[in-house]
Amino acid sequence: MGFKHFPPIQRFRKIAMYNPEYRIAVGEYGTIIKSTDSGINWTALTGGTGYHLFGVCFADSLNIYATGYYPPTYTSVILHSSNGGSDWITQQHPEIGSYGSLNSVFFTSQLLGYAVGNNGVILKTTNGGIDWVSKANGIYYDLYDISFSNSNLGVVVGSYGLIFKTTDGGETWVQQNTGINGIWRRASYPDANNIIAVSDGGLIIRTTDGGNSWESQFSGTKNWLTGVSFIDKNIGWVVGAFGTILHTTNGGVTFIEDEENNFTQPKEFLLQQNYPNPFNPSTSIQYAISSMQFVTLKVYDLLGREVATLVNEEKTIGSYEVEFYGNNLTSGIYFYKLQAGSFVETKKMVLIK
Questions:
Q1: Strands 256-257 and 204-207: what pairing?
Q2: What is the fold, at CATH topology level, of the domain defined by 12-257?
Q3: What is the DSSP string of 145-182?
Q4: Distance (Å, rounded) from C-alpha 61 to C-alpha 175?
Q5: Which residue in 106, 101, 156 sits closest to 275, CA to CA?
Q6: Which CATH code for domain 270-351?
Q7: Among 49, 94, 251, 274, which residue's Cβ finds the most Cβ atoms within 10 Å?
């Protein structure tokens, strides 16, 4: 069966599967779509209008949660549907507040759930989202994903190579020393011993002993990877930029590119919109080049003054990602410009402190 493509302009950010037939996907500008026939047909749902949504999960067949932020004010949002996505309500509590984007949500039961986001935010609910409590752990950097193997064992991943693990249901978190640096985008925790995380540049790391030791795995691509899901210690999928879809049946010893996926190498030059945007203090910029070129990526202020050089070197064909830190800059509008050979493109981003 081929992959069913849904036509909205905005990018999708996360998909959740309740079973092989029943799935929900979310994305920018409130995009929520649902399929009950293994992705052959999709129905657009309403309820997330105006929100950028980056996380979605099932608590059960009827209760679905989505997380993200509201662009004009950059405030966090958690949406809840109790009827399979037909209707959505916005959950607003002081604990959710104005943290910025909530990038991922995970429920281990109908009542017990978690959400993580920018600036080290970790939220927990024990009553199906009626109340959310902060479980801050002295983490000050952005967290992009959360996954649990059972009600006690969980993992969060994020920027600066951060991976934290909990063994007590999210009450405390302990940093994992992987020895491998990456901007970890997503993680999968299929059982007590196995955790898999993916990053930019095709980087995949894994532990098979619950986090005592970690090793890199060869993905066969340099594209940034944005999703991972393992159903057990051996069988899993990884997805990423430019249609990258990888599948393994031996725990990542080898990954096989999906036979219908012909896009793992960029066919054109591309500069993506930074994420998050607005941002504070850091944001990610992704770009791709389709031939070997000398590449520059620079940041400018409103007056056209250069404030940072992020890339200034020859690059081979592939997709790349860099982090921009605005710690020493004032709030305002900035521009970033990519130049690769004759290709030049500029985009706007907003720093809010």
A1: unpaired
A2: Methylamine Dehydrogenase; Chain H (2.130.10)
A3: EEEESSSS-EEEEESTT-EEEESSTTS--EE---S---
A4: 33
A5: 101
A6: 2.60.40.3080
A7: 274
Cis before 276? omega within 30: yes
* pLDDT value, residue 267: 62
- Give the Cα separation of 289 and 293 in Å (integer): 8
- The answer to whether 299 and 324 have CB atoms below 8 angstroms apart is yes
| Amino acid sitting at position 127 | N
How confident is the model at residue 103, as a pLDDT? 92
**CA dihedral in degrees (84, 52, 262, 249; nearest 10)?**
-50
Return d(Cα 264, Cα 22) in angstroms, integer. 27
Specify whether the CB–CB gap between 126 and 145 falls below 8 A. Answer: no
Q: Do the domains at 12-257 and 270-351 have one common CATH topology?
A: no
pLDDT mean by block of 10 residues, the chain; 353 residues:
40 79 84 84 77 91 91 83 91 64 93 91 91 81 93 93 93 90 90 93 92 91 83 87 80 74 60 85 87 94 92 88 90 94 91 87
Dihedrals phi, psi of 299, to nearest 5 degrees: -115, 140
Domain limits, the chain? 12-257, 270-351
